[in-house]
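Lecture notes, unit on protein representations.

Consider one protein chain, 376 amino acids long.
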Amino acid sequence: MKFRVERDVLADAVTWTARTLPTRPPVPVLAGVRLEADPAGILHLSSFDYEVSARAEVAAEVSEAGVVLVSGRLLAEISRALPAKPVDVALEGTKVTVTCGSSRFTLLTMPVDDYPTLPAMPELSGTVRGDELTLAVAQVGIAASRDDTLPLLTGIRIEIEGDKITLLATDRYRLALRELSWSPTFTDMSAVALVRAKTLLDVAKSLGSAGDVNMALSTGGGVDLIGFEAGGRHTTSLLVDGDYPAVRRLFPDEKPIHAVVNTQALIDAARRVSLVAERNTPIRLSFSDGQVVLDAGQGDDAQASEAIEALLVGDDISVAFNPQYLLDGLGALTTELVRMSFTHPNKPVEFTGQISFDGDDIDTYRYLLVPIRFAA
């Protein structure tokens, strides 16, 4: 095998392909990136850990076709460190040489025959705008659990009905929902999938800038694999198995009280006030006519309070939140104003975006946060 490729092209492709490689692979070959030089002038790169696969294709000057398996992380580090010149890669016996200008590296190869076969990409299910997917996954992903002892809650649930996709995630303390439109292959398509949040966040971030993203779900005998493709890059992931809790019912039907606040002003005030909040202690928001007062700290501890303008519809109300969970939800909004809808001081509070003080809320993104009980 022998080929030449531009440094930036190689570095980008190897870095992307190797990004999900396990730090401690169960078998050594899973730490490798498979390089296949095609006589047609295409370099195929792939990685697989039995759960997530990645493939990339780039143009290359192929002198000799062939296949090798080398350490993915090492090749990524080397390719990023090379000077800005064409890179020559060649197989010499059991080693691969990487030459760029006056730089020369030699890498040991791994037994390519021991490498597992990558799963086939499922048939195309539809296409979604990359920037929309990136934003939606980021908005919902903040609510996914990081606790691996509850694997179901570490995922993002994808619900597909016709031309609408709904993303859901919860860690039991907050719940995020985002709806977005897409172009399905079949107008009557209906499917549900649970994807690990870490995987979906990585895919949406890495493919979202490539324009439209093709999404594929295997549906024969039940959905068990999801795939994404954009810009010559493909990735697949096994789905999380199990029944996701019925979280939609947690959103309240009746919301007798709501307040509208400037989003950035509330973020800034919450950050300042939370400076005195000890670990796992809340900040309190007290809403009254024309304002909301934020305060934290009590007794002999450091204390802080700040009042900002707010529009309140309904009775005065006070709630307390985990500061980081509050900031996560506010930071996920893309509107100038946030509407906070209440049913009771100890019941979950719904956050939605709003464009003007006297307008309606925009409910394509909804963030539900459980308040912390506090002594009156």
